[in-house]
Amino acid sequence: MRQENIYTVSQINKYIAEMFAQDYLLKNVLVKGEISQCTYHSSGHIYFTIKDSESVMNGIMYKSVTAGLKFRLKTGDRIVVKGKVNTYAPRGTYSIVAASIEKQGAGDLHAQFEQLKAELEEMGMFDSLYKRPIPKYVFTVGVVTSATGAAIRDIINVASRRNPYVQIILYHAQVQGEGAAASIAEGILAMESVRPDVLIVGRGGGSMEDLWAFNERVVAEAIFNCTIPVISAVGHEIDTTIADYVADLRAPTPSAAAELAIFDYQEFHNKIENLKYHLLQGLQLQVEKAKYQYSSINSRLQKYNPNQQILLKRKYEKELRIRLVKEMERLLVNNKHRLQLYAERFDGQSPMRKLTQGYSYVTDQYHHMVNDVTKVKEQDELYIRMTNGTLKTSVIEIKEETDE
Question: What residues form the membrane-spanning segments (predicted)?
Answer without folding.
Answer: none
